[in-house]
Amino acid sequence: xxxxxxxxxxxxxxxxxxxxxxxxxxxxxxxxxxxxxxxxxxxxxxxxxxxxxxxxxxxxxxxxxxxxxxxxxxxxxxxxxxxxxxxxxxxxxxxxxxxxxxxxxxxxxxxxxxxxxxxxxxxxxxxxxxxxxxxxxxxxxxxxxxxxxxxxxxxxxxxxxxxxxxxxxxxxxxxxxxxxxxxxxxxxxxxxxxxxxxxxxxxxxxxxxxxxxxxxxxxxxxxxxxxxxxxxxxxxxxxxxxxxxxxxxxxxxxxxxxxxxxxxxxxxxxxxxxxxxxxxxxxxxxxxxxxxxxxxxxxxxxxxxxxxxxxxxxxxxxxxxxxxxxxxxxxxxxxxxxxxxxxxxxxxxxxxxxxxxxxxxxxxxxxxxxxxxxxxxxxxxxxxxxxxxxxxxxxxxxxxxxxxxxxxxxxxxxxxxxxxxxxxxxxxxxxxxxxxxxxxxxxxxxxxxxxxxxxxxxxxxxxxxxxxxxxxxxxxxxxxxxxxxxxxx
Length: 489
What we know:
Radius of gyration: 24 Å
CATH architecture of the largest domain: 3-Layer(aba) Sandwich
Strand content: 15-25%
Structural class: alpha/beta
Oligomer: single chain
Mean pLDDT: 96
CATH topology of the largest domain: Aminopeptidase
Shape: elongated
Helix content: 25-40%
Low-confidence stretches: none
């Protein structure tokens, strides 16, 4: 049997007592008057909430009405978000939650009103339907449902499919990030990427430790030497814009981070299985771009390693030489993300890129700065910043620009033993100091660094994302990359 999610607007945001108005699709339902009559009797549905109706349709076992908020909602320039799009995602997710709350074996398909924005509706429904439960007993897993669009046509069907693919890309990355570290080693990650890209136009090269050594990636190897798991360096190539220079996307791939000898506290250390979320987002982004047949030329680089403690682990005060020849004094082995990224960024320049973007769960200071509200972005190029800021407003997954002042460079370049120190002299401005360190390994003038440590994890179901690793802001990055190449035309 089918269930239906249908939307209604509150009329105007300026109305003192907003009256719910069904969407265009909702008004065409033969039981629309029954819904409106019930609202008059029981009172309105609150914004972002739902109300279930039983027995009003022969076609649908249950109908979930969701409040989409004001009909005239749009971009909120204070919040830096398109509220109409975000309201749609949240509302349809709430509608699905109300249907799943029935725990009905009879319902196997949910039909979804496009709510005037089929892409956002698809993102909300498919993202909210997923949770990481594949390691549980089959009886405990979420019952699978199929989803379809109410009154599909050429335009809204295409938008629905785009939203579905964007959600799927984020789910791919979420799964990789949430998988326990014993089941997501560097080798397994590489195997998963190869498997996920089979039958696509993506070319994957999996580099081993011998190749990493031949490239003189001493900074990367300084992290990997503390683990018995061999490091990997995975390259993904997707080129559907052959007459353009590539954009290189680099993702931190620490499949478990104990902190090394500078060991982390035990509390919540289990979440460090997701210290490879940057690499997961690189893979999910490129898989999504290929599925969308996007006209882009993107190379993904994911240096993969564990950061553990053994007799060969890097010791605080050790000095290692990076691929670009610079020596690094490693005073804190828990600042390892910048070490693996340093060599990957140097290697990125070998592709003569038009731009380099890196993404990483890099610094705990991001949580202190922003909480879970947004990702931090550092950019040497205003155009790149403006493009990603615009796409973040649309996606609902926000970013905020951070400084690349020389003040922070001095923190890591005034070093006793080597050219650079992997830690600043001050504990203040830690995220900015980490970005300044990475900048020392970039030659491309168009560079962007994204720190996602603050948005890595949801402690509970929130909006349209279930508890667990979030893979934010993948849905911002995909259109960001598309817009870079659209602006090249």
